[in-house]
Design goal:
Elements (H helix, E strand, L loop, with lengths): L6 H22 L5 H18 L1 H22 L1 H28 L7 H25 L4 H26 L4 H12 L1 H18 L9
Helix pairs in contact: 1-2, 2-3, 3-4, 3-6, 4-5, 4-6, 5-6, 5-7, 5-8, 6-7, 6-8
C-alpha cells in the first residue's frame, strides 16, 4: 500500500517493499529451488497489500520454519547423518582451539587465549556450514539449522546451570558464550555456499519435492 504524499516518498516505499520481498525470496531459496522460492515469495507479496506487512513478516517466518521442518521430516535418516557429519566436522576445530589454549597455559588468563578459542571455533563453524551445503545441496541448509539448534540446546542444558551456580567463573562463561555464538558462522557458511550454488545455477538441478 503506498504511503507517500509525494512521488519521491512513493518511490522510496516501493524500493523498500521490493528489497523486503527480495530478502524473503532469498530466505526461501535456502531451502527451495530458486524458481519455487520466487513463486512463494510472489504469492505472499500479492496478498501483502490486503493483509499488511505484519502478516507478511509472520508468514515468511512460518513458511521458513515449515520448509526446515519438512526437509527434516521427509528424510530423517539423511538429516541425522548430516547433523552427525556436522558435529564431526566441528569437533576438529573445537578440539584444536582448546588444545591451542591449553598448550600455552599463560593464555588461559589472557585476552589472547580467549581470542584464539573463538577464532578456531567460529572459523570451523563457517567451514562446516559450507561443507554441509556442498555435500547435500537440497537439505544442507536444513542440516545447518538442525545442528545449530542441537548445539545451542546442549550448551544451554549443560553449561547454563554451571554458569548459574558459579557466575564468578568468567572463563567458563566466555567459553559457553563463544560456543553459543558459533551458530551464527555455522548458518552463515551454509548461506554463502547456498547462494554460490544459486548464482551458479546448481540449485535448479534439485527442485523441491
Amino acid at each position: 500500500m503506498p504511503c507517500g504524499r509525494t512521488n519521491g516518498c512513493s518511490r522510496d516505499c516501493n524500493l523498500g517493499a521490493h528489497m523486503r520481498e527480495n530478502a524473503v525470496e532469498k530466505l526461501f531459496s535456502l531451502f527451495l529451488s530458486a524458481d519455487a522460492a520466487a513463486g512463494i515469495a510472489g504469492d505472499l507479496a500479492e496478498e501483502r497489500d490486503q493483509r499488511g506487512w505484519i502478516w507478511f513478516g509472520l508468514q515468511a517466518v512460518r513458511i521458513t520454519f515449515a520448509l526446515w521442518r519438512n526437509a527434516a521430516a521427509e528424510a530423517p535418516v539423511r538429516m541425522l547423518a548430516l547433523v552427525l557429519l556436522g558435529a564431526a566436522l566441528l569437533s576438529a576445530p573445537a578440539l584444536g582451539g582448546i588444545a591451542a589454549v591449553l598448550l600455552v597455559p599463560e593464555w588461559m588468563s589472557s585476552p589472547a587465549g580467549w581470542i584464539a578459542l573463538p577464532l578456531f571455533w567460529w572459523g570451523g563453524a563457517l567451514w562446516t556450514g559450507a561443507t554441509l551445503v556442498a555435500v547435500a545441496p537440497r537439505r544442507g541448509m536444513a542440516g545447518c539449522a538442525s545442528l545449530a539448534v542441537v548445539g545451542q540446546t546442549l550448551l544451554i542444558a549443560f553449561g547454563g546451570p554451571a554458569v548459574w551456580r558459579d557466575p564468578s567463573d568468567t572463563g567458563f562463561a566466555v567459553f559457553c558464550a563463544a560456543g553459543l555464538a558459533g551458530a551464527v558462522p555455522l548458518l552463515a557458511g551454509g548461506v554463502m555456499a547456498r547462494r554460490r550454488m544459486i548464482l551458479g545455477g546448481t540449485s535448479t538441478l534439485e527442485p523441491h519435492r
